[in-house]
């Protein structure tokens, strides 16, 4: 390849998170305003007024949650490290990150790519399991921005990779590392709980493949870890007056404790880096719940973050499916 050849942009799509405590409320407003993610009951016309009200009342509690993990979301930092790590494993690729509900937004990043004269891109959703609520919304937002800012851009989309073998290998390695956190004499007693982010049940009922994707990932990971461990799948972050996917993570923790299990390893399965759901919800809230329920030993498997095997897996995926 000529050294003068224009690079291909590698664009990672993710949810985003507040970069300060002051950003929490506007971040929540952006999130609640998205009807692809949350359809508030009053209809499209009142979505934004309701989003403004809900984000205002939710912000006080959410601010405190972010305060406990350092005052901001680490999601952008991790996603940038992932983008840089993946790009460094490929030829003539330049990394970018687009977030859905907080900076950097799609329009701004696409303007930068256009100004730099880059003509081709591979767009990688950082949600392994497809759902219209997250992957679909991020991709639709990207397509809208391309149409507005840079319609000439040629791009390949990678929308799901829940069954990509190198990714499964990497996640299995994190589970094995989590098991090693328990004393040798306790490891055979460990119960493994895969915890994915919940969706409203209506998403699944309308044919969204998210739950199936999560189940395939968990089964394939356990083939690599060893099926002699007891394991379950549950769904976390359920809030608000809608019918959510079941079972809830809190419920399964209590059920396992009632069956006299005392060693619990939680595995965040729908998240590829640390953020509020791992650092606060699992590490603090669920740890406390598990102790109250009767678990004597609790650990969380390390997140994928910028582990070399994960970055290798994603670079291979981009090369395989990205038209490079």
From TrEMBL:
<comment type="function">
    <text>Catalyzes the ferrous insertion into protoporphyrin IX.</text>
</comment>
<dbReference type="InterPro" id="IPR001015">
    <property type="entry name" value="Ferrochelatase"/>
</dbReference>
<comment type="similarity">
    <text>Belongs to the ferrochelatase family.</text>
</comment>
<keyword id="KW-0963">Cytoplasm</keyword>
<dbReference type="InterPro" id="IPR033644">
    <property type="entry name" value="Ferrochelatase_C"/>
</dbReference>
<feature type="binding site">
    <location>
        <position position="277"/>
    </location>
    <ligand>
        <name>Fe(2+)</name>
    </ligand>
</feature>
<keyword id="KW-0350">Heme biosynthesis</keyword>
<keyword id="KW-0408">Iron</keyword>
<keyword id="KW-0479">Metal-binding</keyword>
<dbReference type="InterPro" id="IPR033659">
    <property type="entry name" value="Ferrochelatase_N"/>
</dbReference>
<protein>
    <recommendedName>
        <fullName>Ferrochelatase</fullName>
        <ecNumber>4.98.1.1</ecNumber>
    </recommendedName>
</protein>
<dbReference type="GO" id="GO:0005737">
    <property type="term" value="C:cytoplasm"/>
</dbReference>
<dbReference type="GO" id="GO:0004325">
    <property type="term" value="F:ferrochelatase activity"/>
</dbReference>
<dbReference type="GO" id="GO:0046872">
    <property type="term" value="F:metal ion binding"/>
</dbReference>
<dbReference type="Pfam" id="PF00762">
    <property type="entry name" value="Ferrochelatase"/>
</dbReference>
<keyword id="KW-0627">Porphyrin biosynthesis</keyword>
<feature type="binding site">
    <location>
        <position position="197"/>
    </location>
    <ligand>
        <name>Fe(2+)</name>
    </ligand>
</feature>
<dbReference type="GO" id="GO:0006783">
    <property type="term" value="P:heme biosynthetic process"/>
</dbReference>
<keyword id="KW-0456">Lyase</keyword>
<comment type="pathway">
    <text>Porphyrin-containing compound metabolism; protoheme biosynthesis; protoheme from protoporphyrin-IX: step 1/1.</text>
</comment>
